Amino acid sequence: MPLAQLEREFTVRAPEGMGIVYGATLLAAVRRDIPRARLRFVPESDSDAMALREGRIDLDVGTLFDKGPEIQTSLLYEQHIVGVVKAGHELLQARVTPKRFAAQQHVALTRRGKSREPVDTLLAEHGCARQIALTVPSAYGALMAAARSALVACVPEPLARTVAASLDLAIFKLPVAVPVEQVLQAWHPRDAVDPAHRCLRDCVAVVSRETRFGPLAKRDPSQPMHGRAMAAHRALVSKAR
Residue 221's pLDDT is what? Predict the structure, then answer.
């Protein structure tokens, strides 16, 4: 069936922030080739590798998931983890050292069932430990908590930059060198040559690369993708028609 006539819902397991940062733009991009497509984002509550094998999800996006040996992946982009506090927070009144940073009250997040974050391991090397006052299941939840309190959050930079201005938040560099995270998309081999699924993967790759430093309000919604990446995507999709 031609993609233009296909009616299909794609289920994407991803961090909550992905739907916020990319959701509407991604839907617009996919619908340029599959006008009747629908997207359903589900939370990354666990790292269940069987979800792809059993077809319960179409695409898995994230940084910390386990995957079976047959699962195929591609790198979407790399992201930094940054510190975020409410504008005017006392932490930013002086140099942010590991000791001053750790002594603050923090909001932590769990990702796919893992509560200890790389920043905690690095702080331990300095003899410090974060004072965790609140734990939430998503980076967006951590940002909302930081915006409404004196709590300190550590979240991916793309999401932080997208919402910081609207939530009156300040972004700062962490006092320890947290490794850059690789954000991947993963799929089952049975979907590798499916034209519709390939369209979804191409759109995820292009949209995430072009919008990852937000805010999306500055983008023209009628032109969700452009440049060489968009041209390559459309050439690929046209072959499937």
Answer: 31
Given this model, what pLDDT does residue 231 score?
46
Domain that holds residue 231: 3-78+181-240
CA distance 116 to 111: 9
Q: Are 153 and 83 in contact (CB under 8 A)?
A: yes
Q: Tell me, yes or no, whether 126 and 168 share the same domain.
A: yes
Closest among 141, 224, 216, 185 to 12, alpha carbons compared: 185
Distance CA 193, CA 7 (A): 18
Q: Tokens in use for 67?
A: 């995957």
- Asked whether residue 87 falls in the same domain as residue 165, the answer is yes
Total domains in the chain come to 2
The DSSP annotation for 162-186 comes to HHHHHHTEEEE--SS-PPPEEEEEE
pLDDT tens for 176-225 read 999 999 999 999 999 999 999 999 999 999 998 776 544 333 333 333 33
Residue 132 belongs to domain with CATH number: 3.40.190.10
Could you tell me if 202 and 130 lie in one domain? no
Report the alpha-carbon angle 90-96-99, nearest 5.
100
Q: Whole-model pTM?
A: 0.77
